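Two records follow; treat each independently.
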Amino acid sequence: MPERRTSLASGFSAGLATGLTALALLLSAFGGQTAQAGVFDDEEARRQIKDLSIKSNERLDTLSKAQFDLINQIQALREENAKLRGQVETLNYELESTKKRQQDFYIDLDGRLRKFEPQSAPATENSPPANAANPGADPAKKTASDPAAEAHEYEAALNLFKANKIKEAAGAFESFVKAHPDSSLTPNAQYWLGNAYYALRDCKQAINAHKAVVNKWPQHPKAPEAMVNMATCQQELGDTKGERSTLQAVIAKYPDSPAAAAAKKRLKK
């Protein structure tokens, strides 16, 4: 009996040891699979992070290049704008210089032509009063002209034109023409009124003003120049036929004038 008990105890111990061993092996195998799964998950995460980092860097490179190109374009536009601004300023300066030279030329021409124009003789102490021949005449209706005052008024209007105060000059010349219709300076004032309208880019009014010079004072030294100015206005209005007709009329009416020589040159172009 004691031997049988010993045998049973030994068998039970051996079985228990075998079971424990099997359980240990099972746990070991399960732990190994878990470890392998953990290692696999970490590598996949690293790979995904790496791929995301590469894509992000590529996007940043693309954005940086686009931003750099945009900056270059903005800089190019700024340089082009500065260049255009400089050209506009240069053109404005040249335009103003041309206008100034043109005005100086007109002033000089006016002075030269006035030397050949008849001047009104100023009143002297020995000159009889304007109403001496007709004592009963109304003095208010027979007021004698004052050449000195007229000349001063005319020069004031001309100085406004020379100072590039064109609108004021036009008003002054128009007032002079209305106030002194019989003055020897009225044809000049009418001529300059046409030039003032031209400077104001009102070619229709300029043509009408110059036409008045030709119609009222056809023998005046400024009549040929007025016709040439009319042709210039017609050219700017696109009236090529009218321009040629006016230039031909200048040559026909005033063949020996400088205006006729200028008209011939323009017709050859």
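The next record belongs to a different protein.
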Amino acid sequence: MKQFEANFDGLVGPTHNYAGLSFGNVASQSHASHPSNPRAAAKQGLNKAKALADMGLVQGILAPQERPDVHTLRHLGFTGTDADVLQKAARQAPALLQVCASASSMWAANAATVSPSVDTHDGKVHFTPANLMNKLHRSIEPQTTGNILQAMFSDSHHFVHHQPLPAHPTFADEGAANHTRLCQAYDRAGVELFVFGHASTDHLRPKPQKYPARQTLEASQAIARLHRLDDDNTVFIQQNPAVIDQGVFHNDVIAVGNQNVLFFHEQAFWDADKKLAELRAKLEGPLHLVKVSSQQVSVQDAVSTYLFNTQIVTLPNGDMAIIAPTDCEENPAVKAYLDELLTLDTPIRQVHYFDVKQSMQNGGGPACLRLRVAMNDVELAAVNPHVMLDDRLFTRLNAWVDKHYRDRLTPQDLADPQLLIECRTALDELTQIMKLGSIYQFQR
């Protein structure tokens, strides 16, 4: 039975805008109020996904969410027609309108934590949507995320869907952005590396002082239990509080793994030596720890270029490749490091650069844009085939974007009732293209 890792990229939504909502995310805050280009953003993401499919990788698409989220605005007390709700929110609480119009679901790495069947006791693939309770604009995503995932992975013989963890600070969960699975091969049980920012019930552990730690140890442990993982194939490691305070809001901004390679900055983890030794012992086989020193690449350069928010993928010929944003190519220190990396004794043999600047400027690189799901061929056959990217779907989605997306959007445009109509029309058509059913509230 063949096993592989599929990437499901978040399709950028029609309300992609720069509102600077994510405190602790330097790129998000620094581009606040700039005009965005939703059409270009969606096409940049699709082009990156299609390039991976053309490399022979299994590639799918994750639908965006309904925005502006009028239902949440109504829950917050705004009344009248949909147009009334938008206009009242714009006048009385513009920050709430921005929250409810965010296209942040594009960053599919925060959609859920996923454990493959070879790791779980029941031999099924497990999904837990992230509660994302640390940021208001993201905390409204989990229910629809669950709807979308269940429409994609509906066969209960192969897939298990859990509810998000309780929306309480003790169980703050940011999904796969703080979770990496390492293995010798995709068809062998691996070690799931859960990275947390702080422990709510352990006050002796260090905490960041400037920016919030978004993932808790308690959340990571709860997901491991829900997914029926063994102690032998889990490692819990704390993110270095000092790098969180330098803008490393998720672990995938400072570390990324694939199969038996862990690519990370030397400042990524707290108590690193002990925990990496535990990882090596549990993985049982060769482990390539590719550690980047501060002298080679500063944390500041790593954050600004998203060197570690790259994807590491295994190509059909067995070589590994890094999928990097062009920002890495444009930074002399980072480009020099990546050139040197290809000469080292690691499985990484290629680097491919992609323009995802619309996403980068809002705080997410290539790795943010995708949710990884390791599956075998039987499980893949059970996935909704209409979400899998091929030439036909790529052409249809590009035409769909051209038809429905604006090429300029500012935070002030979010109150335009016509934008809501455009978004709902687009999403209704998308659910027909991808055969997702009625996953949005406006369809019910």
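Discussion point: Residues 4 and 186 are 5 Å apart (CA to CA). How would you locate this feature using only the token line?
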